[in-house]
Amino acid sequence: MTSLLDDLRGRLVVSCQAYPGEPLHGPGHMTAMALSAIAGGAAGIRCEGPDDVRAIRAATTLPVIGLWKVGHEGVYITPTLDHALRVADAGADLVAIDATARPRPDGRTLAETIGALHERGIAVMADVATFAEGLAAADAGADVVSTTLAGYTHERGDAADAPDLELVRALAAALDVPVFAEGRIATPNQLATAFEAGAWSVVVGGAITRPAAITASFVAAIPAHAAAAGVATAGPVGATETSGGLRG
Ligand SMILES: CC(=O)N[C@H](C=O)[C@@H](O)[C@H](O)[C@H](O)COP(=O)(O)O
């Protein structure tokens, strides 16, 4: 465990995830994404679901952080001990679990869940939203605390589209366990600021691995007058293809 964390210290972890229905969903695409991130210098991969974890584990010797999302509401990141065990079985070095103060669907406390994983030699990354949750997760025995859920649990009303670097700073100052900065880190400058704030490691997902969202941000920046000129001469973008440009 110490060596795994040493390998990630001062380095970038890339989160490679695609939802069912998205063109890149599935272990083949996510493995290619992970290998692309590694080629660019990522020191570890965070990935979702036993199938993707197993495929990416087979493709790299670098640290793999696994999780399992169940739904999109409430406690959905590796919500139960059983999910965590299956992610570990698939080959994750570190299992990321929801570590917010919300009740867990299997009725276990966070400490009971972490204790049961530790009994089996499984290391735990605690995904938190707030400072108090970070402290509680470390008390409960988490090996790593990550700011993954900051801004996603309705506790933080302001600037919810930016990373919570103040939370990174506060947790890094208060905790002995490594604190990972994760969530809405969109630029290299924000990554640098997260390390300055004390992050052990920084996890970046969508800004690297969600091409549809990245494309949409460019499309949204097209000035109205340029878009209007295009419509006047050639019709709306994508109008020559079926349903938004997708065939079949
Ligand atoms: C809130 C939640 O469900 N976060 C998930 C956790 O695994 C992923 O959807 C994020 O992509 C990941 O945390 C990285 O964050 P970002 O994509 O913002 O760089």
TrEMBL record:
GO CC annotation: cytosol
Origin superkingdom: Bacteria
Keyword set includes Isomerase: yes
Keyword tRNA processing: no
SUPFAM superfamilies: Ribulose-phoshate binding barrel
Family assignment from sequence similarity: Belongs to the NanE family.
UniProt name for this protein: Putative N-acetylmannosamine-6-phosphate 2-epimerase
Record organism: Agromyces agglutinans
